[in-house]
Every structure is written in C-alpha cells, then in structure tokens.
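Why this split exists: single-chain examples teach little about how molecules sit against one another. For that reason, every record in the complexes split bundles all components of an assembly together and asks for one structure covering all of them. Below is a record exactly as it appears in the raw files.
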Amino acid sequence: MSETVALKAELRKEAGKKHAARLRRTGRIPAIVYGHGAETVAVSLDLHTFTEMLHHGHRLFNMKVGRQSETLLVKELQYDHLGEGIIHADLVRVDLAEMVKVTVPIELKGTAKGTHQGGMVDEHLNNIEVECRASDIPEVIPVSVKELEVGGAIHAGDIELPEGVKLVTDTGTLVLTCHLIVVSKSTEELEEEMPATPEVITEKIDREAEDSSE
Amino acid sequence: MALMPKRVKYRKHQRGSMKGNATRGNFVAFGEYGLQSLDLHWITGKQIEAGRVAATHFLHREGKVYIRIFPQHSYTAKPLEQRMGKGKAEIEGWVAIVKPGTILYEIGGVEEEVARAALARVSHKMPVRCRFVVRRHTLG
C-alpha cells in the first residue's frame, strides 16, 4: 500500500525547453501540478530525492505548493531517450479517500505447468488499470501462473484483485498465454520466403498505364 | 538474401543525414529484456540476421526473440574501377537506421541471466555499442 511522503518543491516561474534544460543541469527536474479544478502550478523537484522515493515504491507525496500543503499522485513520468533518467513529472492533486484510476504492474508468481510440457509463458500485458482509493494503491498485483497449461490463457477478468480494488481494464483483455515454443526458422528457410528484390509499386502502376494505353 | 522489404514505393533512397536520439522504439515493449543501441549507425539486414541467429542458437529452443528493427532503407554502391557519373548505382543492400536509445532485440520467457548472456552474444554482431535493459513498469 502506498504511503504519503514529504517532498520538497520549488515554484518554477520560467517555462520553455531552454529553462528546463538549464534546470536539469543543476540536478533538478521540471514538474507540473494540476487537478481538482485548481490552478496548474509549475514546480521543480530534486531529481535524486524524487528518483529514490520512486524506487522505494512511493507514489503519493505531500508537497508544499505555494502556501498550502497538498497530497499529490504521480500521474506520468517522462524519460530520456535511453530510458534512464526522469526528465519531467506530472503530479495530480488527490484526496486520500478519493477513488483514482491507476495502472499497476503485474507480478507473475510461481512456475507454470505448461513450462514443464515444453511451453513458455507469454506476457501480453504487463500492467492493468485499476480503480481504488488513493491511499490503497497496490504496488504490484500478483498473478499465480501455477495452473497455467499449454494452450491456456489468463484474461484481465481472471486476476484476483486485493480488497477495495476494482478492475478498469476490459475483463476480456488477454494478459498471459502459455504456448509451445515455435522453432525459429533457419537463415536458408527465411531466404526462400524473401523475394530477391522488392516489388516497386510505382513501377507496377507505370506498367499498368502503358498496357492500358496499348 | 538478408532481410528487406517486400514492397516499396521507390527502389532507391537518398542517403539522408543521421542525427538525434530515438524518440520511438526506445523502450522494451514485447519481451522482458532488451538490447539497446547507444550509437547512431546503419545496421544492415545481414547484421540483423547474424544477431538473430546468435540469440536463437544460444537459447536452444527456449524463450522468444523479437527483432525490433527492420532494414527499410536501401543504399547503392558503384562497382570497383567504375568512372563517376552515369546515374545512381544499383542497390547494394538494405539498412535500418538506428539511433541512440533504439531497442534492437528483445527476449521473453527466459531467466534474466540467460537473456543477458544471449544478448551479449548478439551485441558482438552489432556495429554499435549496446547495453542490456530490463522492461520498465509505467506509472500513471
């Protein structure tokens, strides 16, 4: 369950990519606070502290925005091109008793029966959308795959959710399947399937036009 | 014959400039582990196939290998001792334009150690510096 932790933020007066880049060079990241019909506020956060809190599984923060303290939930994170560092954060105002829609990662538990029969578990979806109280957001949703056999599947509706958590993702959405491993084709087999040269669409159109004129 | 498109609108392409970082295809989407490029380069269809073979041989019919790049850009080359001019040369091969951050391969259905070892073998076949990445859970 998510705990609320205190996070220091500074109001950001300047906007734009140049200012954001300058901010990032000083070890801070730009963030935006919105929600509850109140004014949108641009803030900056200390990157090290914020990343550390996220690594510890925190999603809810108590932050002093302007004069008043607010409870904020991480709505979206933007990463750099390598997916390493956070470059921007979206924080939404929430009440702890309020119902919120969040995506929660799925954690597979156990070894599927199908893997002993020469199959493999294919994860089609690695997180599901749920609705719950802001104070009760689960860190992960465990999914037991022990009974999954070859040819079997687990849909979003089959997942057991903790108390007070409602599924938002469509119940029929495919989450996991267990199937036999397909033997990969050799280079020679792939070469046989491949055309020697690609078909050129524009040349085909030209040829058809010539034929029709004749 | 290595990987190449089945149908194209025009046979020959201009070389184009390579700059910037990957803004798409820069996160692990299908498998659990991936191989990410740290450089900007052309990767030929033959190199992509060599990487695939290296991974599938190592995995011994375990797991699943996903190729995240495709050579859709053709390049031409004049034969040796050819005088300059007389138009654009014939197609020499097909390449994928890879930028820093692009996920090249993904592996799913195996332990992390196995995926790490398989992708290390693949990285030796690549003309770029690569690194091993794990799928990131999205918050929101």
